[in-house]
Here is the input.
Amino acid sequence: MPLTFNVVAHDPLSQARLGRLETPHGMIDTPVFMPVGTQATVKALRSSDLLACGASIILGNTYHLYLRPGHELIRSLGGLHEFMGWRLPILTDSGGFQVFSLGSLARVSEDGVTFQSHVDGSRHLLTPERAIDIQLALGSDIMMAFDECTPYPVTYDGARLSMELTGRWAQRCHAAGHKRAGGLFGIVQGSVYKALRDASAKELQDIGFDGYAIGGLSVGEARSVMYDMVAHTAQQLPERQPRYLMGVGKPQDILHAVRLGIDMFDCVLPTRNARNGFLFTSTGKVVIKNARHRADGRPLDPGCDCFTCQHHSRAYLRHLFMAGEILALHLNTVHNVTYYQRLMSRIREAIRLGSLDELTVPEF
Amino acid sequence: MPLTFNVVAHDPLSQARLGRLETPHGMIDTPVFMPVGTQATVKALRSSDLLACGASIILGNTYHLYLRPGHELIRSLGGLHEFMGWRLPILTDSGGFQVFSLGSLARVSEDGVTFQSHVDGSRHLLTPERAIDIQLALGSDIMMAFDECTPYPVTYDGARLSMELTGRWAQRCHAAGHKRAGGLFGIVQGSVYKALRDASAKELQDIGFDGYAIGGLSVGEARSVMYDMVAHTAQQLPERQPRYLMGVGKPQDILHAVRLGIDMFDCVLPTRNARNGFLFTSTGKVVIKNARHRADGRPLDPGCDCFTCQHHSRAYLRHLFMAGEILALHLNTVHNVTYYQRLMSRIREAIRLGSLDELTVPEF
Here is the structure.
């Protein structure tokens, strides 16, 4: 068994659980948040900065790395860990989502997806087998099955056809990944239809994966609908394997989803917001370009132990941001990534102590 | 005396000397290179990175900081050192050069220079007294006298008038800076005319500064002319005070100027070139976007102990640069700044050992 997952504590008042996930590159405490390292770097951070921020696993994007610099190049240089100098676990997505959101002229067939590169316009075919081969070349600790990104909104029949295709592709990914050293997760689809989510969850479990992701949410549906689908779907997934809610989200969404039984998260929000000057603090959102911070000698968040808060004032951060300095992107990213990691650490500690129901976060 | 300068060794075969310059924020070994921190940051580096690169003093730009975030703001927050989190010495330029190169519609009068901000188009008047007041607000360790940037090429009479104006402004700066805690340097002008350089050097020494800079070179004249002017002018300056060649330059220029008796340097070359993917190595220039580095698993420079060379391959650096990643700017800057600091360290060691004539650098 390439991955070992143990639930070490349950929250008495919710579905939340504390877990330990062992991967080829080491142990992860769950619930966990994975910063997104799209192009073999979490934007504006060195790998050593990521460690200092508390990250224990990052996400790499198969679509981007396949197009640039190419998975065969990364394979020849010893894999993604070696290439980017990150020694802890890496989860790779399958490229399914990005093919539709970033590639153009995507055409879906039973075989896979033909699309045009956003880098140079070249045409490519991504299939379940190829998505697995790329992730194997990258040396991923946790690979994701190749899925079709179901559009939203979508009819029941449209969602069913898409979910069924994802199911057949999941079977092919499972076969292609049989020699894997790391884990392989299936992705539950079915849009906002519980019957389809149930069918998808059952089909994937019949194939048998090392963990299960909930995909196709946070794509425009109401937050209450998203919560309802996560609550329902999480209960269709096996108790003894990790559950991963893809692309979510805001701190309050993560806290809520943990209570619904989710173990793993990823989102570009902390890093992208940092580059746009939107910062997460214990008292809520800070928009650093706001004039009120102009002469404020205090740190962003007095309770934060990140490099940025330990060394710099809001006034300095505002100045760097207004002046368009590269250092602004770095310092803001350090802070937001640390905020998310501390949030997860607080969540884990609260589960351990049985006090998760008392934990609150500001609305962002 | 706010600055103390001691020459501790002379090279037997040239005018080069090893010195120690004591400032309010500590000691600097000379010859020294000062990375340029224009907007309260050396672009793409944190202050802790600068320390790791070996920097012992940086340069701050009065023009930029006056316009944004404003010197009064920096003064109210404890000065530039505190504002940017840099505890070692800072030399500030006077704004003279930038007013002409970055401001627009600059108009010179006896009083000073009226110009339009490159940030917001607002109109400002910079005078010798104001340039000193700004530098005092910043808490500079070494202030520069406000000078007129003599255009190049220029007639003898044009250069003479400009040099004479700079001399009168130097007198006013000296008076305005009499309460300074740090040092104040005069700037020798006179374009490419030795008689004017002599007159300027003499006039400034009659006023009496803590050190002397050679300005108005590396502005388009032939390299041989520049070397000739430095050689001549350095000999007009007092033996017991530091000599600073402004805005120079390439490693071979620095090595040559050290042999002519120069103690201090600044230039945007290492940092700007880094952001453009031009890297300094012990075997010459590396253009990181070049396809030859695509699959090269070796470090940029095997003899370099910087973070970049210790952790990453040319292939990774090329990938980051081609992908437009912020981390490329950071890692390249770390390397180039370290290269320059190591160059200065090798120069100092060679003077100490009496072997400076054997030291060579690649042509860049």
